[in-house]
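anyone seen this seq b4? input:
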Amino acid sequence: MTTERAWGTERPLRLGTRRSKLAMAQSGQVAEAVRQLTGRPVELVEITTYGDTSREHLAQIGGTGVFVTALRDALLADEVDFAVHSLKDLPTAQPDDLVLAAIPKREDPRDVLIARDGLTLDRLPHGARIGTGSPRRTAQLNAYARSHGLRIETVPIRGNIDTRIGFVRNGELDAVVLAAAGLSRIGRTDEVTDFLSVDSVLPAPGQGALAVECTAANAELAATLAELDDPYTRAAVTAERTLLAALEAGCSAPVGALADLLADGQVVHEMRLRGVVGTTDGSTLVQLSTTGPVPSSQDEAVALGRELAAEMLAKGAAGLMGERAL
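predicted toks r here
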């Protein structure tokens, strides 16, 4: 008997998701993939998280787990069967009673600029006001401005994608910085005026990737969801998140990281991990990279992240982070 026939008469699977337009879009994509995989209906269960209701900036409330805890509580209370998170929002320590069953193929990890008059980062005028709620982006934007003789003002903002873009449309800000992946998932990349080079602004660890989580006790569902896993994405984000954890930094600390695959023609032969830590005024950055064989196991990806973290700490990275994880 096929999986589809075996599950065809069972109740729908319940997918826990945040209520935002972006969260609903990305959860809907995962729901459709699970429907196709299992033949079983999937219903979205909307859950409000602390990060959605707080009016404070993420750097003030700590950032770590504020969009995640309510979803995890719903999993453990058996109110939902699995949940979808933006991976960059997940704390680096994984609870024993929950499992990251799948990390699907990653979207574009870069940050993007949406600016007035179609401006790109290198064409912003002196005194440009750029909105972002991220200390990581603030540090790197200010460092970029210093290195190019540009004066900018980074303005802390919060809100959904519409709210943030609205600050540019109404003239309050000259530009805002957002994640490319989020705009792609809701079909709004045509509003981007500049895809920011990772040589200038490294993304957050795990940016562009999703995490599909269920309880460790539900081994059958975990095994089914694992079919959505992309091993290259998992290896890359494991290296990035290990770097973040080894720096003892939370997800709202000014840390950027990106692991990418290096290819010789069609043959992938190495993984490069880049990391950056900086003061938010951009005056000091520790930016390093390391390269190794493509990890064939989680342990090898972890080792790559720890190696780079040790080098960054030796260069003084610990003294540049405002928030330290407990």
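The CA atoms of residues 257 and 275 lie 4 Å apart. The two ends are 49 Å apart (CA to CA). kinda curious what u guys think
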